[in-house]
Amino acid sequence: MDEKFHEVVLKRMEPAHYIKYLNMQVRPYDMPPNDSHFDSQYHRSEIFYEKINNSFWVFAHESEEKTDTCYVMPPKKSKTDYFSIDYYQSKHTFRYQFGDKIVPVTNVTIFSGSSSTYKIFVKRKSPIRRYRLIFSKQYLHRFLNLTSDNARLTNSNVIIATGKGLSVRLIHEIEKIALDKLYFQLKYNKNNFNYNLSVTANAFNVTDQFFKLANIEIPPTRITDDQDLMIKIIHHLEKNIKNKFPGIDALASDFYISQTKLKKNFKKTFNTTPLIYFRRLQINYAQEKMQIRKITVKELAFELGFKKSSTFSLWFKRYTGQHPNELQK
């Protein structure tokens, strides 16, 4: 690579040391115990984390770097073998490196062992969101039931057994929905009475989805025509989140498919409906917009194609548990 990147080495994997490292330059004002804001290395950054149990931690870290940055994930040297699932998402292209291979992506998930190492290259002023789930080896053995006689020899299981290697793939649409929900819970729902239960349930769901998708033996055939069409439809929805939902009839007509088949195949592929998927995209966009600048609910509703701000607020509360005005206080 010709570009010069400022190298940041995350030296420790143990949750307590990891938190200490990330909290090194906290701004001097009162803050909740499990989130931090930085102002030295980053243009803007924040981290949220939660301890599920003594062997399972969850982190959500969003940052926008001042300079081109290379994050180095070295081997995790500690008394306990720790493993991590890392999810990286950005609207801009970033790169990951494992060995001599450097790959440009806009999203990726990486499962790494205690002896694994890789790098993430992020350009300046390119916001990136990262989720990190950290587990002990003993915990993963119990979670995946690796002690059973019928345990399958998958890539993930080999990494757990040896502590070496990586499992790398793009993030599935189902995972994106679960991750967005987890991020919102960690950031906004701390004061809710069911916060711990909700975060724990969603963290288990994300973990379960990862290993189900990672261990699927995919046949060496191309994606089916039906799946390809569903992907084209979600790309169409993503490009039009600032308009009102087109409706099943219009979508079916635009993509030359029956309404019944559209609803059936969309549900089968993404485990949700086109309308729910579209609304989640809009609410995610609204949350990001509210973080970047001050904007009224009425302005947000108008920008996203809602005729009434009250309708937008109802959808927002349905997915977040809070009215948009509550997040702006």
Automatic annotation (TrEMBL):
<dbReference type="Pfam" id="PF12833">
    <property type="entry name" value="HTH_18"/>
</dbReference>
<dbReference type="GO" id="GO:0043565">
    <property type="term" value="F:sequence-specific DNA binding"/>
</dbReference>
<dbReference type="GO" id="GO:0003700">
    <property type="term" value="F:DNA-binding transcription factor activity"/>
</dbReference>
<keyword id="KW-0804">Transcription</keyword>
<dbReference type="InterPro" id="IPR018060">
    <property type="entry name" value="HTH_AraC"/>
</dbReference>
<feature type="domain" description="HTH araC/xylS-type">
    <location>
        <begin position="231"/>
        <end position="329"/>
    </location>
</feature>
<keyword id="KW-0805">Transcription regulation</keyword>
<dbReference type="InterPro" id="IPR009057">
    <property type="entry name" value="Homeodomain-like_sf"/>
</dbReference>
<keyword id="KW-0238">DNA-binding</keyword>
<protein>
    <recommendedName>
        <fullName>HTH araC/xylS-type domain-containing protein</fullName>
    </recommendedName>
</protein>
